[in-house]
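Data availability (excerpt). The following record was deposited with the supplementary files.
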Amino acid sequence: MPKSKTHYVRDLLDSAVSESALQVTLLGWIKSKRNHGSITFFDVADSTGSIQAIVSNQTLDTQTLNKIKAVKIESAVSVSGLLKISNLSKQAEILVSDFEIINPAKLETSPYVRSDFDIFDAKFTDLMLRQRHLYIRNPKVMAILRFRSLTMEIIRRWFAKENFLEFDAPILVPAPLYDDRTAIDLSVHENPAFLSQCAGFYLEAASQAFEKVYNMAPSFRGEESRSKRHLSEYWHVKAEIAWGDIETIINIVENFISYLNASLNEEGEEYFSIIGSKPRTDGMKIPYPRISYSEAVNHLKRLNFPIEFGMSIGSKEEDELSKIFKSPFWLVGIPRAVEPFPYSIDQSDKRLTIVADLIASDGYGELLGVAEKIFSSSMLDERMAEKNKSLDERYNFVREVHDFGCSPHIAFGMGLERAIRWFLSIPHVRDTIPFPRVAGRSFYP
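Predicted structure:
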């Protein structure tokens, strides 16, 4: 058995020429197999693609031929032979001279994991979640996860370009952003703790040292929401900036999303093709239009939505509002009743916070939120009392940051999976993460 891999499928496809043949050895997995009398065709796949291999009964011994005929799909194999261009298909292929089963597949799946089926079809949802550890080999799943990796790379690139420091906030935290019931609690060495809902408290402290900081890490939610844009475990892109107001952070985020959209379209072209999606362009056209919360409520009431001022605008309402615009849009001025305590009160209308949500086009819902954050101790005390947290000592470190010369500061937070879902125009956020954790299912695999 070869000790290491020297050839990848993409290398072979690039190096094959019609005038000559190369002797190669490829390590990979059996993607598919077809027997045609004295000739057997099978496709060998690896992380970079697949290539056809051809076996003639006249060139291999009986024992090897029997192994090839019996080998199951997804067996790990070593294939050696001449790499050449087919006279018929004009595609690269390997004329097999040696074949070895490195590790046979003992399981069978239907459909085959690397076959071309609609991974988004509802009839495959349970299968794709239950056997995610196997179907992660599917080319479309692989393309989505490569797109995810590219998205994270471009996000880090943008933050570096804009002189942000990547700051690692803790996952185990003493207090949730919202209420205890919305968080996942646990005990660590007999100390009560929560899985982080948001890195905001820690980025807030860091912004007073580094001024421009960001964090990209998992967040967790305890609510059993089963919408197409919610996960129990998801990745949060958070940023905090000292010195700025709501207009500053809106401008920053618009440039961020526009840069991300343009870069993904340019660098992710291959993945769009595999997934069957078209590159999105509406995120590049800035500035995005705005609608105030009050205007949105009045519009929805005219359409007989059961909503009153002070209520949260949910996914159905966002879908309806997105029909007004042809691009992402800002929902500006969210009521203090539905926002957590760290966000500033609007002094021109004290029913509201200085918060705006960016709603995706085409009914994909909220992408991210931006806010002016409280910096004065008096406003913090007012908001904490309002949220019944005044006597909660778990938030003492948050108070101390505000009592220690806290500057005005601004923030945004984006769900990574929501953004990827929108960029790729795919049905559900569960398709954008390697191993989704969704409400109503056991955390397996």
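Summary of structural features: The mean pLDDT is 95.
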